[in-house]
Amino acid sequence: xxxxxxxxxxxxxxxxxxxxxxxxxxxxxxxxxxxxxxxxxxxxxxxxxxxxxxxxxxxxxxxxxxxxxxxxxxxxxxxxxxxxxxxxxxxxxxxxxxxxxxxxxxxxxxxxxxxxxxxxxxxxxxxxxxxxxxxxxxxxxxxxxxxxxxxxxxxxxxxxxxxxxxxxxxxxxxxxxxxxxxxxxxxxxxxxxxxxxxxxxxxxxxxxxxxxxxxxxxxxxxxxxxxxxxxxxxxxxxxxxxxxxxxxxxxxxxxxxxxxxxxxxxxxxxxxxxxxxxxxxxxxxxxxxxxxxxxxxxxxxxxxxxxxxxxxxxxxxxxxxxxxxxxxxxxxxxxxxxxxxxxxxxxxxxxxxxxxxxxxxxxxxxxxxxxxxxxxxxxxxx
Length: 382
Prior knowledge:
The chain is flat and about 105 Å long. It has 8 helices and 10 strands. Helix content is about 55%, strand content about 15%.
């Protein structure tokens, strides 16, 4: 075989397989007594592979060094991660080995360390509870055994009666501790379920809001641009930033819509004050159907964006249409159903009808009206 080739024979393949299996076994077990022998055996197998191979010495040496450095780094990281996990449990359970005059106070300290520990996950907390429950069960068994011995073998006297009473108190205290630990386990399980529910709930709410985001943002920006195109006066709004948008507003947070309100106003005209409102977007608590609520109100008129389901079933954009409407004084002025990809023209038409309703009640003139001497401090001209 040429000195410049690096081929694997039967022995080298066997060493490679052995090293790989030992490395995988070590990674699956955090016990140091098993971890280090397996990882050491894996390293030796790979080094033997480099020695047995007939390839170029330089490449074999370089490969052995790389394998040594890599496996040492992996072993160091894996072992220290396991040690950090164990240190959490040791810190939580340290009080078990200490003496305390009051078992009730001891149990209270245990509860505080376990329940309020933010660094330990639910599995670590449950493991600590099971360890403490096992200790309490042993205490109860020892106290029961000692009480029986006193009753059966010691003569009746005040001293023997007192000893039996003390053992009975220890047994009852151990039983109380076990009952308390069972309650704490239930609390941890409820906390675990609540976190899982909240995570799933947030994901469902974000999925529901996602198709409405571009529609609502377009309605806000389109209204602003329409008013700018016809108004000789500055447009006032309390939206954050230089241009009204739902992003960073009180209407939208963490990927979903929340109940809130902003204003967009033409100059000082109260009749031309548009209230941008999200309302009725309560969390979807187990129901199949949830309805979106968004309105732009001005005087007695309002423009709205909602959704309607095509058929009974779970929420998804393919099973729902947008309903864009405008009304005033109890009358429908405009109503159109459209898909989530064809919302721009219906929104423009509804906003046009809303602006027309405002103009019918209060016509804008080409001469600007002076701004109110006490404007809304939260609003800013755009």
